[in-house]
Every structure is written in C-alpha cells, then in structure tokens.
Design goal:
It contains 14 helices and 3 strands. With 381 residues, the protein is an all-alpha fold. The protein folds into 2 domains: 237 residues, no CATH class; 128 residues, no CATH class. The protein has a 3-stranded mixed β-sheet with strand order 1-2-3, with helices on one face. The longest helix has 43 residues. The chain is globular, with a radius of gyration of 23 Å.
C-alpha cells in the first residue's frame, strides 16, 4: 500500500510502524524476562511508586529502534557514530539497572568516550571552525548536559518516553521540511530516519509505561535516549541566519528537560544539598518539575500531560525560530521560548515554597497532638 510513495516518505512510514510494532509486541516478553532475572525497581524514599516495578524496558526500546532503522538499505557515517554510541550507552545503562546502580562517575566517563566516537564519525558542533578541539569540548558539554537532563526527566510514569516522542517529532518535522525543500534525499535524510525510529519505539513502550506503569525504561532507556537526542541536536541543520540562532534552536526543542535540570542543579547547590562534583553527579531527589506540579495539586497524569504541552510549545518555538526570515521574527520566536521557560521556573519556585509551608504546617500540627511527658511528682520527706 506504500508503493505509490517516494522512497523517503515510504521508508519513514515503514521504519516508524516497524519500531512501534516491535516495541509494543516485544515489551510483554521483555517484562517477563526482566522479572525473571530480578531486574526490579524497588520502593525508596526518593521515588514515588509504591510497589516494585520491572525496570530495563529501555533494552526493548533500543532493540525495536535499532532493528527498524537498520532495515532500509541506507548507511551514513554520522548515523554509524550515533548508533554505536547509543549501543554503548545502552550497555552501561543496562548494567546499572541490573546491579542496582553504578557510580555516576563511570557514566560520565562513558559520555566522554561516546562523544569522541561521535566526533570521529563527524558528529560534532561546528562553531569554532578554526579550533576543532573547542568544538569537541563544547559537543562533550552538550552531550553530558542533555543526557543528564533527560535521565532526570525519567521520574514519573510516561514522562521520559513522552518527551522523547515530542522532541523526536520536532526533529522529524525539520527533516520533512528539508525533504520538501530539496525534493528528495538530502543531508538530513538519516536524521529523519533515526527520529521516526525513536517515535515508533517510544510510542510502543508508552502502552506499558503510562500511569500506572507496568515497566520502567530504567537507565538502559534514559541513558541511550538522552544520548541519541543530544547527538541529533548536534547534527540538525538548524539555521543559516547566525551561529547564535543555530545553537538556540535545539536548546528550545529540548528546553523542558534542560531548564528543569539547570534549575534544580542551581537550587541544590544554593541550598548546600550538593557541595562537590561527586555529590552533583550522584544526587537523586524527588524535586523535579513533575514532582513540584504534584506538590501544588496536580495528579500524576495531569502533571505529565502539562509537561507534554510545555514541550510542544517550546518545540514549536524552535521550529518557528528556524524559519524566521527577519530579525524581528527571530527575536519574537526566541522571546516566546524564553517566556515559556520563565513560566516553568516560576512554577517550580512557587511549588517549592508551598511544599515547604505545607511540611511546616504538618510538623506543627503533629507537635500539637503530642503532649509533653508529665514530670514525676517528688514527695517531700
């Protein structure tokens, strides 16, 4: 039924559909096997689920994604670098899920290694064109930042996969626009291929990860997905206007996890919760945007849906900025994205104040219910 379409639209449909079917049908098998080997996410104080849940679903997401994007007879050096790095991140994340946690320092080293692999295959920022070492260093900072931010977004049922679908959909939109402009294959054809593979595999996973979740993606999923989205953010042909605009667009599209991560990083350091680099890497707490929305009365479903809407709005701002023809239009699109980010930060700050006030009120109420012990009477002799 797809034979009447041109090669790339047909390929995109086949890849997306294949990734979705493989993920949706493979997930029950994966859940069964992961439970058998004891890969479970236990209940703890810094987590919001109340019963142990199978983790490691990211392994199935990756398999569905990789098989789907490798079906077409198309290979690209950039694509090879991304897939190789994604596989390494998957393996490290899966090990973390299996043993119940590995030091964050090893994950950081992994991201340095995969960034060097990306650079070898031509996937790196091109800002300091005469100083490639600076470009590699900036690419490394971007990959570490985006991957860490996306890993932090995996804190509520359906959240991380939903964000991945939205971000990948924005990337895929740009690939389709480029296809229309060039009337066929172009330098972003592989970019669209990986994007649609991510969309399909994560939609299949969301069937089982929506609240209440039957499976978590675990670090196996968040680590490889964060890295892959970061790599795609490096290679998108964002704008021909200026380097500043070109750098701003992927930041807007990935804005929700990035601004959430930057805000809580600053707050944790400001409050003294994290004092060293190791503390920053290893610290884990239920204080992200999604948690704060729940603090002010959102249900889990509503909090996740609200974040979806913010992601879509910021992604659209990025796409509008890419196609702005005038300086004024560019500034308006950029202002729109930054205004949305400011709204997010105001929400997070307000939620924190209300949460602290509620805790103090509960503490005072509890103290009022507990009468002080009576002192024993002393008889005069």
């Amino acid at each position: 039924m797809w034979q009447g379409l041109h090669y790339w639209p047909r390929t995109y449909l086949i890849v997306g559909f294949t990734a979705f079917v493989l993920s949706a049908l493979g997930m029950p098998v994966g859940i069964f096997l992961l439970r058998k080997i004891g890969m479970m996410d236990p209940v703890s104080e810094n987590k919001i689920h109340r019963t142990p849940v199978v983790r490691g679903g990211g392994i199935i997401i990756f398999l569905a994604f990789a098989i789907a994007v490798l079906i077409p007879d198309y290979r690209n050096e950039n694509m090879k670098g991304v897939l190789m790095g994604a596989f390494i991140c998957l393996c490290v994340g899966a090990l973390d899920d299996y043993v119940g946690g590995i030091p964050g320092f090893y994950k950081l080293i992994t991201l340095f290694v995969v960034t060097l692999i990306l650079s070898y295959y031509g996937v790196r920022l091109n800002i300091f064109r005469d100083y490639p070492v600076l470009d590699i260093a900036l690419t490394m900072l971007w990959v570490v930042g985006v991957t860490s931010a996306f890993n932090g977004s995996d804190n509520m049922d359906g959240l991380a996969s939903g964000i991945a679908v939205i971000v990948a959909a924005m990337f895929f939109t740009i690939a389709l626009q480029t296809y229309v402009v060039y009337h066929g294959e172009n330098r972003l054809s592989w970019f669209g291929l990986l994007s649609v593979g991510l969309i399909g595999s994560n939609l299949g996973f969301l069937i089982y990860n929506s609240h209440p979740a039957k499976v978590f993606m675990g670090d196996a999923g968040s680590f490889f997905l964060g890295f892959t989205l970061a790599a795609l953010g490096v290679m998108g042909e964002w704008s021909e206007q200026s380097r500043l605009v070109s750098c701003t667009i992927p930041v807007l599209i990935l804005g929700v996890p990035l601004f959430d991560f930057a805000y809580i990083l600053f707050v944790r350091i400001w409050r003294g919760e994290t004092r060293t680099l190791r503390d920053i890497i290893d610290h884990c707490a239920a204080d992200h945007l999604s948690h704060r929305l729940v603090w002010i009365g959102f249900s889990q479903r509503k909090a996740v849906f609200f974040i979806y809407l913010i992601c879509i709005a910021m992604g659209i701002s990025g796409i509008l900025l890419r196609h702005s023809d005038s300086f004024l239009d560019s500034q308006l699109a950029l202002f729109q994205g930054l205004a949305i980010a400011a709204i997010v930060m105001v929400l997070m700050s307000t939620a924190a104040k209300q949460h602290i006030s509620a805790i103090r009120a509960q503490t005072r109420q509890l103290e009022g219910r507990i009468a002080p012990p009576e002192s024993p009477e002393i008889e005069d002799k």
